[in-house]
Amino acid sequence: MANAKLICALLLCIxxxxxxxxxxxxxxxxxxxxxxxxxxxxxxxVETVPPPGCCRGVQNVNNAARTTKERRDTCSCLKTxxxxxxxxxxxxxxxxxxxxxxxxxxxxxxxxxxxIK
Length: 117
Prior knowledge:
0% strand
């Protein structure tokens, strides 16, 4: 359950980061989750900072979500996972800054994934 929470939060972060990319494939939710697995301790506050693998995962997801469809799919995946595992969105929203990944919109449970470009 803790892994799922972490994955949700990281996915949400990645979703926010995704609009900066341009690729023509579809990113799968399990791929997003796998890239964010190492962030679990941070989102559950077992760790006070995300481990290096967590930031690499965030960057990987951001780099993979290049098309509008991929960014929207990633956003939807992250929202679903975050809700399912009760991810602390305050921690999720801070992750892009900590990992130095630029995201053009805020990480939020209220984000409308269909509006992501």
